[in-house]
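[09:14] KT: can someone run the structure on this one? pasting the chain below
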Amino acid sequence: MPTPKRNIRYMPFTYKMMIPYLILVLLTDVFIGYISYTMLIQSRTELAETNIRTAMEQTRNNLKYQLDEIQRMSDTFFGSQAFQRALQTKGDLLEQYLTMLDEIVPPMQAPLQLYGNDIRLIVYAANGDLTFIQGDNMTEEIKDSDYYLLPFPEISDKEWYKELQRTGKDNLWMQVETDQSLENISHIRKLVTFSDYKTVIGYIRIATRLNDLLGDFSTFPVEEGVVLRLLDETSGTNLYQRGGADGHVSEQSFLVLRESVPETGFVIETLVPYSYLAKDAGRLRSAIITVCAISFLVMAVIGFFVARLSGRKMKRIVTFLRSFQEDNFQKRLRFSGNDEFVQIADAYNIMASNIQELIRSVYVQGIQKKQAELEALQAQINPHFLYNTLSTISSLANLGETRKVTGMVSGLAKFYRLSLNQGNVYIPLAKELEQIETYLEIQRIKYADAFTVYFDIEPEIKDYRVIKLILQPFVENIFKHAWFGEQIAIRIAGRQAGACIELKVIDNGIGMRPETVDKLLVGPVQSDSYGLKNVDDRIKLRYGDEYGIQIGSVYGGGTTVLIRLPADAGGLADSDEA
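[09:31] RB: done, structure tokens below
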């Protein structure tokens, strides 16, 4: 399409950028010596704080991930019916021993192999008949992963167990027994039966080292006075501390940073000495003097910023071109001003509009062509049946069968009244079936009682609309090609299968050889497959290539034709015509 020419005088973009660039150089020369020291000290402080915060976030994520892994491990034991039944098993020693080997030990060994760090997995079982397993000494540091199966009395007199009984808490993290002295923490959960979710069959305890949970401490320079703590915010307990000479520090001379661990009640707290934040002041002062003395470095830095400003518009252009590459032609590029970027934007917008219009034009033409092909195919099928029927009427008239001629003419009129359907493409399936019955009435005049027809149609699909004349050609082909012997049976079935309607026309005629079936719906229309190919083409044009006709046949054993249609394409019988 013609586009108006913009009579605007353009100014090169690089010329415009020189003005702020020169001003920036001047201001840098005047103020750099005055403000650089203060800014760099502040930057160093912020950088140190940012590094500590980043390390804390990483530590939090690592801690949360491993706590979640142990929680999932606990959930597995809690939700395992097989493990629960094994813990409740009663019987002789051999049965107990086999249960231990097959159903208790393997589930306890598996998580030890999958979890990345060393842990202690302890199950306190209420069933005293079990064979108990004593692992490593739990008063010593965790060096390797180990599992334990201990009797319930082991904890019945422990303070932490009494506390759980008193408060009713469950599925929680806490330090029990030697955990605090060994810098460990335990996840404790009650195991109950699936039968009533009340009867306690034991407790599971998973102990792990806090060093493993908190990860590498190289980013926390404790040798320079930085202190790392893990606090239980609910109880205010200090669960773990790294740094601090005597374990106690005064927070007045520290910057206190806190990071909460979601869904745990734990808080990671880091105390950073202010002296550590400002320790590089002398070195930064020397660096500033050097930078100010070497002017070309200042110019290089300024040039970098100028390049960044120039690159913003280029980045936007690239973004729009990528969108254009992904067939998104609706976006338009806009720049203010009168430089080369505005010219690029104008050219881009014109090109996108022209391509969008071209695509729309081609799309409309394609739709029109498709509609014309559809209507042409629709028109082809009716004359074919008319030729055959008129030939039969002529033969009957020559034989003087006046009553049969009258019946066939009446049936033919009714058939074409249903076929025309007032010019509508879609017809209710019930009307299509009525048309088949009309066709069969015409054939009964010719063949008398030589054929039998059975209808098996789900009532729910009779109100759905389908394109007309999709069943009659297949019934007609039965009379034309499938007749074998003196009698033939025809079954017409229909059902809804998911989002599709499946119609079947089945006969017990002579059938077809495989090579004949392969040729019916492939390649140019042949005279013997005229109606079949036509119906398949019409269905694919209307609904798409995933729908259409499938033919299965056994030579000497009959033929089945499957017609697949979408259930919602034509709507229900009371909807508007397509």
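[09:33] KT: thanks! The mean pLDDT is 78.
[09:34] RB: yep, looked fine to me
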